[in-house]
Amino acid sequence: GTSCSIIQKCFGCDHFSTGELIRAEIEDASSSFGRSIKELVASGRLVDTKTVLKLLKNAVQRAKRSAGVLLDGFPRTLDQAVLYEKEGLPLPTHVIYLDVPRKVLRERILSRGAKSAKRRSDDNPEAIEKRLNDFEQQNKKLLEFYKAHGKLHVVDGTMPPAAVGEQVKAILSGRASSKL
């Protein structure tokens, strides 16, 4: 989120967070589609690829795309990356992975829930552990895929947000390389 805001301001690209798209759909009381995914999210399970792709495709097609598209939280699996490409959506030129230890991720998620006026229903210890387990299991193949295609950049996500933002801006501007 924070790094994406910095990138969006610097480069003027359209920013789409799959988490925000999902939450907006759930909050839309008139959306039967949103009601159908609410239970999944509350239990800590990942929303299925077809649902995420539908939301993302609608958002990307409405975008200006004058300076590019920034996807936050997508793809999370190799299957999602392959299906995204098959949908004819814009292919990534850079994939930036913010590397953060599991313990720090858990603390950040719990802290986010404690500070927020709108606490997420899946910000509880059991759901967090399930999400982190799923993420770690599925993310490995995805990172290997983008590494093999020369698009993966790894940034230390434990640095202060401004430092992360500067490193990401340098990567996107071609001034730095953090490829694996």
Automatic annotation (TrEMBL):
Q: Which InterPro entries match?
A: Adenylat/UMP-CMP_kin, Adenylat_kinase_CS, P-loop_NTPase
Task: Please name the Pfam families in this protein's record.
Answer: ADK
Say if the entry is tagged with keyword Transferase.
Answer: yes
Q: Which GO terms describe its molecular function?
A: ATP binding; nucleobase-containing compound kinase activity
* Keywords from the UniProt entry: Kinase, Nucleotide-binding, Transferase
Nucleotide-binding listed as a keyword: yes
Question: Would you kindly state one Gene Ontology biological process term found in this protein's UniProt entry?
Answer: nucleobase-containing compound metabolic process
This protein's source sits in the domain of life called Eukaryota
Query: What is the similarity comment for this entry?
Result: Belongs to the adenylate kinase family.
Q: What is the protein name given in its UniProt record?
A: Adenylate kinase
- Say which species the protein is native to: Oxyrrhis marina
